[in-house]
Amino acid sequence: MPAHSFLLNGQPVSVDSPADLPLLWVLRDVLGVTGPKYGCGVGVCGACTSHLDGEAFRPCLHPVGDIAGREVKTIEGLADASGLHPVQEAWIAEDVAQCGFCQPGQIMAAVALLRKNPQPSDADIDAAMSDNVCRCGTYVRIRAAIHRAALLLRNGAVPRDW
C-alpha cells in the first residue's frame, strides 16, 4: 500500500492505506480524529464537513489518494492555544447543540461561510447551511450563532488562520 501524506490540522501526517479509501475512514479509523462524523457516507448530510485547503468539503466523498500534499482541517484543529474559534464561542453562547452529532460539520460549514461572507443575511446563512442536516432541528439557533460569530469577528475576534 502506498503512503499518503498531507497536513492534518497543521501537522504533517502519512498513512499507509488503499488510495481509494475515503478520507473520512482514514481520519476516524486510522488517525483517531473523530470530530468528522459518519452520517450518510454519500455527501448529503454534512456531518463530516471539514476543510480542504480552506474550503468546506465532505471527507466521505474524497479518497485519501486525492488528498496528497493538501491541507485538511477538522473541528479538532479549529481552536488554538489562545482559545476557541469565535464560531465555537457563538455556538456555546447560543446553546445550539442538542444531541450534538451534526455540530462539528455545522461549525466547519459556518466557518467556511463567514470566511467568504463576513456579514451574511438570514437567506445567505440558510443557503450556505442547507446541505448540513440537523435531526434535532436547531436551525434557528444555528442561524443566531452564525450572526453572533459574525459580530465577534467584526469586533476583532480573528482566529489565527483567518
Automatic annotation (TrEMBL):
GO molecular function: 2 iron, 2 sulfur cluster binding; metal ion binding; oxidoreductase activity
Ranges of residues in domain 2Fe-2S ferredoxin-type: 2-78
PANTHER family: BLR6218 PROTEIN, OXIDOREDUCTASE WITH IRON-SULFUR SUBUNIT
Organism lineage: Bacteria, Pseudomonadati, Myxococcota, Myxococcia, Myxococcales
Recorded superkingdom: Bacteria
Cross-referenced InterPro entries: 2Fe-2S-bd, 2Fe-2S-bd_dom_sf, 2Fe-2S_ferredoxin-like_sf, 2Fe-2S_ferredoxin-type, 2Fe2S_fd_BS, Beta-grasp_dom_sf, Diverse_Oxidoreductases
This protein's name: Isoquinoline 1-oxidoreductase subunit alpha
Alphabetized CDD domains for the sequence: fer2
Organism: Corallococcus coralloides (strain ATCC 25202 / DSM 2259 / NBRC 100086 / M2)
UniProt keyword terms in alphabetical order: 2Fe-2S, Iron, Iron-sulfur, Metal-binding, Oxidoreductase
Pfam families in the cross-refs: Fer2 (PF00111), Fer2_2 (PF01799)
